[in-house]
Design a protein that fits this description.
By secondary structure, this protein is α+β, with helices and mostly antiparallel strands. It has helices at 19-25, 244-256, 285-288, 320-328, 349-357; strands at residues 33-34, 40-45, 50-54, 66-68, 70-71, 82-91, 105-114, 151-158, 188-194, 198-201, 216-217, 234-238, 258-265, 269-270, 273-274, 278-280, 296-302, 307-308. The strands form 5 sheets. Strands 3, 5, 6, 8, 9, 10, 11 and 13 form an 8-stranded antiparallel sheet that branches. A 4-stranded antiparallel sheet has the order 2-17-7-12, covered by helices on one side. Strands 1-18 form a two-stranded antiparallel sheet. α1 (19-25) crosses α5 and α4 (320-328) packs antiparallel against α5.
Length: 360
């Protein structure tokens, strides 16, 4: 199995353009990484160490059977825009060595959750723009073009002195004495990963008038968009490990042995009502009976040295040795050599152009 990381940006546009244009297209690929298949840990975590409904009026933190996600009233000043959030944390140290820093890279990450409510919310696998979630009186408002609102996966950030190692299922939602109607006070929040290992709270994204970059948007195999989602449905989140900021976030979690993820949605609600998604928590009785499954995480983690794009033998330079490997794989799918640089299934002139464009 070839676990080379090949972001879509690497692929050169195919046309009748000469090879030199293909070489030029490779410039943006410099700096990408790949890893040897033999050095990959395939880890699976069938249940979280922590799952928590982050909602201001959750009176049973860490012990709820069902966790829901939803937004607040568009345009209202109270609460976070992403009001009900689901936090999960996985203890990864038993399968992935801790303290490795950048020596580890996640080549695949998938979070799966099970829907607990039946035919309540519509499936939407695409991110909706922030303009759908402001007040209808706002000049920027636009109607949601498709049924439903997506469930998004993000990282988790902390404030008020809390950290990923300290926060627990029953930790307080906000500092003692806080006005729970106020936005931006929760101790742990859904967060966008930013360059440099930092994160930004996405709980106010419509108020901030921006669309955050999610780790993933929830998808359901075989279900048509707009369909109502049945109880027991498995919703998956294939995390964008090619995003450098997300990669750094995951590395930091693995380094500490605790990977936090958050699910949020801007699903429209009414006061004390709404057709919003809900998911099975690990404390659910059906989980104890083996009927349902809690949140679970799959990771493929490369432990070998990082190699520059087109550095097929990982010696720190793109040179004749790499050219020899590419020519030796000519006409094949590249196998574990990583020679199929544009990931089209065949080692060809396009891959040769990419290699020559990164020569040196």
């Amino acid at each position: 199995m070839n676990t080379s990381s090949k972001p879509a940006a690497r692929a050169a546009t195919r046309s009748a353009t000469p090879l030199v244009a293909i070489v030029s297209a490779a410039v943006g690929a410099v700096g990408a990484e790949r890893f040897a298949a033999a050095d990959t840990i395939q880890a699976s975590f069938p249940a979280p160490a922590l799952d928590r409904w982050m909602y201001p009026f959750n009176s049973t933190p860490g012990s709820r059977a069902v966790i829901s996600t939803f937004g607040s009233t568009p345009g209202a000043p109270e609460f976070d825009s992403r009001d009900g959030q689901m936090l999960v944390a996985f203890a990864t140290g038993s399968q992935v060595p801790i303290g490795q820093g950048s020596a580890l890279t996640v080549t695949r990450a998938r979070l799966t959750v099970e829907v607990s409510n039946d035919l309540i919310f519509a499936y939407d696998p695409t991110q909706d723009p922030w303009q759908c979630f402001v007040a209808t009186s706002d000049p920027a408002w636009t109607a949601d073009a498709d049924p439903g609102q997506p469930v998004e996966c993000h990282g988790v950030g902390f404030r008020n002195g809390w950290t990923a190692t300290a926060f627990q299922e029953n930790s307080p939602y906000a500092p003692t004495g806080s006005n729970l109607l106020s936005p931006g006070i929760r101790n742990a929040f859904a967060a966008e990963a930013l360059p440099g290992g930092t994160v930004a709270d996405v709980s106010q994204s419509p108020r901030n008038r921006r669309d955050p970059v999610p780790f993933a948007v929830g998808t359901i195999a075989g279900l048509a968009p707009g369909s109502l989602v049945a109880a027991g449905t498995q919703m998956t989140f294939d995390i964008d490990v090619a995003n450098p900021a997300i990669q750094d976030y995951l590395r930091a979690g693995l380094n500490d042995g605790r990977v936090f993820l958050a699910l949020s949605s801007l699903t429209f609600v009414q006061q004390q009502a709404g057709q919003f998604p809900a998911f099975v928590a690990k404390e659910n009785a059906f989980v104890q009976l083996g009927i349902s499954q809690p949140a679970r995480l799959e990771l493929d983690v490369a432990t070998g040295p990082a190699c520059g794009f087109a550095d097929l033998n990982c010696d720190g330079a793109v040179n004749g040795f790499d050219l020899g490997l590419l020519l030796g794989a000519w006409g094949t799918d590249g196998g574990t050599s990583g020679a199929d640089l544009d990931d089209d299934g065949t080692v060809s002139g396009f891959d040769l152009g990419l290699l020559l464009g990164n020569w040196g």
